[in-house]
Write a structure and sequence with these properties.
6% of the residues lie in helices and 43% in strands. The chain contains 1 helix and 8 strands. The strands form 2 sheets. Strands 2-1-7-8 form a 4-stranded mixed beta sheet, with no helix packed on it. Strands 4-3-5-6 form a 4-stranded antiparallel beta sheet, covered by helices on one side. A hairpin with a 2-residue loop joins β3 and β4. The longest helix has 7 residues. The protein is globular, with a radius of gyration of 14 Å.
Length: 116
């Protein structure tokens, strides 16, 4: 299954449908955009970010447009926002394994882990 993500809106208790995300490959401080996507009704991408055939070892970054998502939901946020975009840097060591990078998020906090 390669690489996947899933975002849950912990403020509203639902998937973060409509949240924009971006996937980058990284080398040190340099990041190269691979793709931009919008999460579906289930807070997931319609297809894996990478399948096992295209997944490569290396370092990556997922960026989640948190503030825009909550503003679109009608949440009044302070300016500047406490969280604007959440970026998660992670490494892929074994291309034969599934890497799932979920995000649990509110306008004021987030949590992540390597899921299954």
């Amino acid at each position: 299954m390669g690489l996947s993500t899933h975002v849950l809106d912990t403020m509203h208790g639902c998937p973060a449908a409509g949240m924009a995300i971006a996937l980058y490959s990284t080398q040190g401080e340099q990041a190269t955009l691979i793709k931009r996507l919008v999460l579906n009704h289930d807070g997931r991408t319609d297809a894996p970010l990478f399948d096992n055939n295209s997944l490569r070892t290396g370092t990556y970054r997922l960026t989640f447009d948190v503030a825009a998502y909550f503003k679109a939901r009608g949440v009044v946020l302070p300016e500047p926002n406490f969280l604007d975009r959440v970026s998660l840097d992670f490494g892929i060591a074994h291309v034969d394994q599934h890497y799932h990078v979920p995000l649990l998020v509110s306008p004021w906090s987030y949590s992540t882990y390597r899921g299954s």
